[in-house]
Amino acid sequence: MTVSPSPAQAAPDLIARFTDLLGPVGVLVDATDTASFCTDWRDLYHGRALAVLRPANTAELAAIVRLCNEHDVPMVPQGGNTSMVGGATPDGSGREVVICLTRMNRVRAIDPADLTMEVEAGVTLKAAQDAAREAGFMLPLSISSEGSAQMGGVLATNAGGNNTLRYGNARELTLGVEAVMPDGSVFHGLRRLRKDNTGYALRQLLIGSEGTLGIITTAIIQLHPQPRAIEAALCAVDDADAALKLLGLLRARDPALVQAFEFMSGTGMDLVTSLIAGTTVPLGERAPAYVLVELATPRPDADLREYTEEVLGEALEEGIITDAVIAESEGQRAGLWKLREEHAEAQRRAGASVKNDVSVPVTHVPELIRRATAACAALIPGIRPAPFGHMGDGNIHFNLVQPEGMDPAAFLARSHDIMDTVAGIVKDLDGSFSAEHGVGQLKPYMMPAWRGGAELAAMRHIKAALDPKDLMNPGKVLPPAQPGA
């Protein structure tokens, strides 16, 4: 493959100043070195970078941000580069620098009395989870990409994941942040306080802003007691209505035990077991849909296995589920979770796919799945709907795989038709077109219809106040302003 010359050749003086600030190890300019930073995980976007900058601490980051601001250089913050919406990919101009915080990768402290962790932005979520576990605690945030996703990106996108229905998403788990603002100033907000009513909660502006308002460098994360017992069960159900009834039964019995409740369609499960090595459904017959339930408790005296058997037995007697298996070991539990976590990869291997990360009130999830399945089948005959996800909090990844034999490019050319079809149903059900993946550069066009009027105007005012030059991750989240707007 031929790699184009680096845009850095056009700006040697600026590159030299970056190198003075960060040292040679902190600046990548050769096109072969920067290529992986210029393409998103889904391979939908391909850009070019003036340079990839890798600061080792907050002071270095602040210095390069001030330099970028001085020279009007746009900045694209990037963590583990796992964005599903192109939120961390530079454009094709070659003017933007990618700022990667991989070198800022320390877990600074864990406070057992406060149940908090101070962690730098470049620490992967998995490493943060492991550090919490080694200290006897639990960082409950869990997503499929946790081995690569970094804490700065996790917070910048307000990641949700598997345990949101019990512990909340990144926003609920974050007490304080430190961040470098677009002008290079540092917001010192590393507070461990649960109660702090002293003006606007600036950390909440930064969390979920996708790097458009500043770059999070460090955070104070709430931890939880490590569960003493965990039980995972895979249940076969006839449809999403039955899955919702199962959720209701679990909540009626003991809502505090429900840690995860994941829905998977039969089509999606078939793709996983046929395309991902080492996966099998440990049930007697194929089902139209499945639910992965995980129950957990920190209580030392709880007989969680007996409780799980009782509640699933009740669900079988009432016809809510048709079959179920409870993991007998940690290995079997991991195997059940692999069936869920490999959905995205299986769909990628099956061909082109269009992803709809949407949310609706939990009670509307079955209607969403029914209506969107029918609408997409009418739009493109033979399309393979494979909805799955966090039914317990109303977040369904309503993904659609190309019909077998269809040209992938032709299918992807219909992406916006498909997304708009699903989004119309989501909007009718009082939902959101982006539950946890964010807006990025894939979905800003949807913002005026969904967040227009006073809400979008307020967002624009905030962006203009904090980043008047529009240098911080430009082209993401907010659509271009219309003339006269």
From TrEMBL:
Species this chain originates from: Komagataeibacter xylinus (Gluconacetobacter xylinus)
Co-factor(s): FAD
PROSITE patterns given in the database record: FAD_PCMH (PS51387)
Presence of the UniProt keyword Flavoprotein in the record: yes
Protein known as: FAD-binding oxidoreductase
GO BP annotation list: respiratory electron transport chain
Alphabetized UniProt keyword annotations: FAD, Flavoprotein
InterPro entries (alphabetical): FAD-bd_oxidored_4_C, FAD-bd_PCMH, FAD-bd_PCMH-like_sf, FAD-bd_PCMH_sub1, FAD-bd_PCMH_sub2, FAD-linked_Oxase-like_C, FAD-oxidored/transferase_4, Oxid_FAD_bind_N
Keyword Flavoprotein: yes
Gene Ontology MF term list: catalytic activity; FAD binding
Entries under Pfam families matching the protein: FAD-oxidase_C (PF02913), FAD_binding_4 (PF01565)
